[in-house]
Q: What sequence folds into this?
């Protein structure tokens, strides 16, 4: 195995079990590793630190283990076994009520560069590193072997792998084939999941508990679900007894999927209406009509995917929340989120605070939200905390 030796004092983060080695910390590389190769990381005195996947870029190594052990089929089987056992112990694996959960959450499950979501009998795998891409078939076999409900593994990494890598990934089934039904069950509700053409792995599993919280507040309220995508929050609001639910998204496909999910759970329900429109345009137009909402959900796509976009992203969050504060009824509730990893909890909260001050409304924080337990945050890798949310009471 090729060895990578670090500069003096650059081993401290690895000794604290942080799984990344940055290129600037490297003193010497023995040999010429290809992107995706397993490499051994040593300190400046050549003491063993970790084994990980080599990659080109600022993050040069993603550690898969801090033990000097063989990285073989048994190793990958153990990793999947531990990930699945945790989900079982949390009560997330319940075929009668919930067959949808995240099986692997990258660094949170000590498998950096790998995401796996389970929808009924199908696991959808995404690789974010060449190393995990090269290991995809072994991982697929480990998933089917160790997760009883999974019969198919679909690989969806065409848009997630490093664009400079000399590979040509293709989406498709690694094991099994397309199932007749693309329906997933979440807390007793049915959702059509399009992992072939949809965003991410086809469904945003990370909002499950936040959708459940919204259901508790929905009774008798008029609800606006902005950036609705698959309509998850809308369906939960309807089950919670909302008086009306409006779903808004600029994507026609998203609106079609939302309407399909509403119909699957609440056939011919006249309380729901969807709008294929830009979010800011929709909120601006509300100023010209009498419609006001009791409850507004703001769950936009990531405004900042890299640090260079951070400033504009914070302006976007401020502008979006200010519009919501303008349009909500007195005594209304706003569920507002950021899924941008580069935006910290403090920065997001400050953007929302600035929006509240601009609106001159009295706003109180009821809940501070994060990602669910099947999206664990490695305590040694705080960067894994990407989902931030606030539930706000607006006088």
A:
């Amino acid at each position: 195995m090729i060895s990578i030796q670090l500069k003096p004092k650059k081993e401290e983060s690895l000794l604290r079990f942080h799984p990344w080695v940055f290129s600037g910390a490297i003193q010497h590389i023995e040999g010429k590793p290809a992107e995706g190769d397993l490499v051994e990381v040593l300190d400046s005195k050549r003491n063993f630190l970790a084994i990980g996947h080599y990659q080109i870029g600022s993050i040069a190594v993603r550690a898969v283990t801090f033990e000097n052990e063989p990285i073989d089929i048994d190793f990958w089987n153990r990793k999947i076994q531990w990930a699945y056992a945790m989900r079982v112990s949390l009560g997330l694996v319940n075929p009668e009520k919930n067959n949808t959960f995240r099986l692997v959450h990258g660094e949170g499950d000590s498998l950096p560069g790998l995401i796996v979501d389970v929808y009924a009998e199908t696991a959808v795998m995404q690789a974010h590193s060449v190393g995990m891409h090269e290991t995809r078939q072994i991982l697929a076999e480990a998933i089917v072997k160790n997760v009883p409900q999974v019969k198919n593994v679909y690989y969806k990494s065409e848009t997630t792998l490093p664009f400079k890598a000399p590979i040509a990934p293709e989406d498709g089934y690694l094991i099994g084939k397309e199932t007749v039904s693309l329906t997933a069950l979440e807390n007793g509700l049915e959702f059509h999941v399009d992992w072939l053409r949809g965003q991410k792995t086809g469904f945003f599993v990370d909002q499950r508990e936040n959708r459940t919280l919204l259901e508790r507040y929905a009774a008798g309220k008029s609800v606006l679900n902005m950036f609705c995508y698959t309509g998850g929050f809308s369906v939960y609001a309807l089950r919670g007894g909302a008086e009306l639910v409006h779903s808004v998204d600029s994507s026609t496909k998203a609106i079609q999927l939302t309407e399909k999910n509403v119909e699957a759970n609440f056939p011919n329900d006249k309380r729901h209406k969807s709008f294929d429109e830009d979010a800011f345009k929709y909120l601006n137009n509300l100023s010209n009509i009498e419609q006001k909402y009791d409850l507004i959900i703001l769950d936009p796509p990531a405004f900042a995917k890299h640090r260079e976009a951070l400033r504009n992203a914070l302006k976007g969050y401020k502008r979006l929340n200010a519009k919501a504060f303008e349009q909500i009824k007195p005594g209304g509730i706003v569920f507002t989120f950021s899924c941008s990893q580069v935006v910290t909890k403090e920065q997001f909260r400050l953007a929302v605070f600035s929006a509240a001050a601009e609106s001159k409304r009295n706003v109180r924080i009821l809940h501070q939200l994060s990602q669910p337990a099947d999206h664990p945050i490695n305590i040694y890798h705080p960067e894994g905390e990407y989902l931030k949310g606030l539930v706000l009471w607006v006088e």
